[in-house]
Amino acid sequence: SQTIHQWPATLVQPVGSPLSLECTVEGTSNPNLYWYRQAAGRGLQLLFYSVGIGQISSEVPQNLSASRPQDRQFILSSKKLLLSDSGFYLCAFAGQGSSPLHFGNGTRLTVT
Amino acid sequence: AQSVTQPDIHITVSEGASLELRCNYSYGATPYLFWYVQSPGQGLQLLLKYFSGDTLVQGIKGFEAEFKRSQSSFNLRKPSVHWSDAAEYFCAVRIMNNNAGNMLTFGGGTRLMVKP
């Protein structure tokens, strides 16, 4: 079966520190991968998506970057965190065609 | 550009009462529509989806939704709410973009509270 793993579940980081959130998918090949952010009391904002290894598209300009070093691995990074980067980060994947999005359990990031 | 609107930010219902969460979309072509549920601190779980065919779709946990093209709506319903249904609900529409795969645009969410 298809599963998605996202870690860590929670993270507290000081301003200016680096960030690396990892997401891996099992049970499918060549998935479309997505990073969403959910700020407190707000909806979901698409940050990045990838339709293949090394292919990253950014939806909003910001302090974050994403990489896809392997087919089923998607990484969200930052060199220097800002207070405004705090939020709930969700990784998601979808198979080809009309497959729905499946989400990981999210990472709660607090920048202090 | 496509958009999804959930007019109700918060809804409170009594346990056992019926529920309807509203969702309106703006999209030029025939949409693919979804409802997701999110419990506090968790990821999103797919409740149901509409691609084509019967406009009344059944989902998990006793939920259903009806696609009404004339009203550009995809409202979520449940005949009898349980306390465990308290969560945030998101409506979403898929844009078919060859460059973006099957990316979803989400509404702002509706937080459901259930009174005992």
Question: What does this entry show, briefly?
Answer:
In chain A, 0% of the residues lie in helices and 57% in strands. Chain A has 112 residues and is an all-beta fold.
Mind summarizing the main beta sheet of chain A? Answer: 7 strands, mixed
Number of strands of chain A: 11
| Amino-to-carboxy terminus distance of chain B | 41 Å
Regions with little confidence, pLDDT below 50 for 5+ residues of chain B: none
Average pLDDT score of chain A? 91
Helix count of chain B? 0
Q: Quote the beta fraction of chain B.
A: over 45%
Task: Please write the string of helix (H) and strand (E) elements of chain A.
Answer: EEEEEEEEEEE
Low-confidence stretches of chain A: none
Give the strand content of chain A: over 45%
- Helix run count of chain A: 0
How widely separated are the two ends of chain A?
38 Å
Q: What is the quaternary state of this protein?
A: heterodimer
Largest sheet of chain B: 6 strands, mixed
The percent of residues in helical segments of chain A reads under 10%
Give a written overview of the molecule:
The complex is a heterodimer of chains A (112) and B (116). By secondary structure, chain A is an all-beta fold. Chain A has strands at residues 3-7, 10-13, 19-26, 32-38, 44-52, 55-58, 65-70, 73-78, 87-94, 102-103, 107-111. In chain A, strands 2, 4, 5, 6, 9, 10 and 11 form a 7-stranded mixed β-sheet that branches. A 4-stranded antiparallel β-sheet of chain A has the order 1-3-8-7, with no helix packed on it. Chain A is globular. Chain B is mostly beta strands and 116 residues long. Chain B is globular. Chain B has strands spanning 3-5, 10-14, 19-21, 24-26, 32-38, 44-50, 56-58, 64-68, 73-78, 87-94, 104-106, 110-115. In chain B, 0% of the residues lie in helices and 51% in strands. Chain A binds chain B through residues 6, 32, 34, 42-44, 46, 49, 51, 57, 88, 90, 92, 94, 97-106, 108, and chain B through 32, 34, 36, 41-46, 49, 51, 90, 92, 99-109.
